[in-house]
Amino acid sequence: MEHKTTLQSDNGEEFGGKSVEKLEHLNKKLFAPLKAELLHIPKGKKEYQTFVERSHQADDNEFYIPQIERCADLKEFFSWEFMYNTKRHHSTLGMTPFKKLTMERKTSRLVALFPVMQLKKLTDLYFKLFPQTGYHVSTNDQ
After folding, report:
1. Same domain, yes or no, for 102 and 55?
2. What domain count does the chain have?
């Protein structure tokens, strides 16, 4: 059985913001071909975001901050990332992230190598692939 991946974000402009039309467009053109769907955190449910933020904090404290400067290049960084996702217990999960994921669905170990992507690079790629959309995606990382 093939699974559909669901991504959840806050209502930030980079992923549709308050525009229903923009979110529908992103789902149709970008996510649907990848068998994925983007959902926004429901209004009035800000506690949903706390789980994401707590996970990001654990990732920062347990992986990125102590390891990033020790890595000489991207190959070494991805090696650490693979170890972090498949060998080291995550403090919030009580198990490795890969173990948690495989409890829910059959997954290739290659998913543990999923590279970090800067939002700016993703939006640049999106507009190269879909230049006719006319939508502007704002990023705050400049």
Report:
1. yes
2. 2
Q: Give the integer Cα–Cα distance in Å for 64 and 45.
A: 29
In the numeric block, the tokens 């693979």 are attached to 82
Between the two ends of the chain, the Cα-to-Cα distance in Å is: 42
What are the distances in angstroms from CA 88 to CA 74, 81, 121, 128? 20, 10, 29, 37
The reply to whether 117 falls in a domain is: no
**3-state SS class at 95:** strand
**pLDDT tens across 74-104, in order?**
788 778 878 888 888 877 788 988 888 888 7
- Domain coverage including residue 40: 1-45+129-142
Shared domain check, 94 and 68: yes
Dist CA 42 CA 63 (whole Å):
30
Q: What is the pTM of this model?
A: 0.46
Which string of DSSP letters, residue by residue, matches 20-51?
A: HHHHHHHIIIIIGGGTEEEEEPPTT-THHHHH
Query: Is 91 within the bounds of a domain?
Result: yes
- Element of type H or E holding 5: strand 5-9
Name residue 65's amino acid: I
